[in-house]
Amino acid sequence: MQKQGPEILVPLIKELERYLTLKDKRNDSISTSNVAWQIDHSLKVFNLVSKTLLESNPKLYTSKFNKWRLLFFTLEYFPRGKVKAPKFVRPPENITTNDLEIQLKKAFQNIEQIKTAHKNAHFKHFIFGVLNTKRTTLFLKLHTTHHLKIIRDILK
């Protein structure tokens, strides 16, 4: 049986890290952004979502049915080009290796903290609604995997 806890996130962050040396590569037929943009955005989302989850009050968690969450979490897939990244998780114009390394370190720290988070710690996503720790972990897996696929296609 496949592991479903936060440890499933470690290989994804390690893969992002492996692409640092290729951060300036681009392929406009795949994306208007380069590899650095994909890494930076993935890490910004990862770290902001993790922070929100870890700072939440588990006593305030409530869950409602969400058709989009059911669809995309069941498919374990996000389509490309359908949603624009909110401003607060868009990368800056100049993305440095040092900035990415700092964000990577924070992502690894966040994974360790998520392992001890209450099951009803939560994060509210603008499309998928309120996600508890298990669903937030799955969201982080799906979102990071989505951007890793884009990076792999850019580098083909």
Short description:
With 156 residues, the chain is mostly helical. It is built from 5 helices and 2 strands.
Explain what you see.
The structure is a single chain. With 156 residues, the protein is mainly alpha-helical. The chain has one domain: Four Helix Bundle (Hemerythrin (Met), subunit A) (Up-down Bundle), CATH 1.20.120. It is 51% helix and 5% strand. The chain has 5 helices and 2 strands, in the order ααααββα. Strands 1-2 form a two-stranded antiparallel sheet. α1 packs antiparallel against α4 and α2 runs antiparallel to α5. The model has no long low-confidence stretch (mean pLDDT 95).
N-to-C span? 32 Å
* H/E series: HHHHEEH
Shape: globular
- Low confidence ranges: none
| CATH fold category name | Four Helix Bundle (Hemerythrin (Met), subunit A)
What does the secondary structure layout of this molecule look like, with pairings?
Elements: H1 10-18, H2 35-55, H3 67-75, H4 97-114, E1 122-125, E2 129-132, H5 133-155
Antiparallel strand pairs: 1-2
Helix pairs in contact: 1-4, 1-5, 2-4, 2-5
Fill in the keyword field for this structure.
single chain, mainly alpha, Four Helix Bundle (Hemerythrin (Met), subunit A), two-stranded antiparallel ribbon, 5 helices, 2 strands
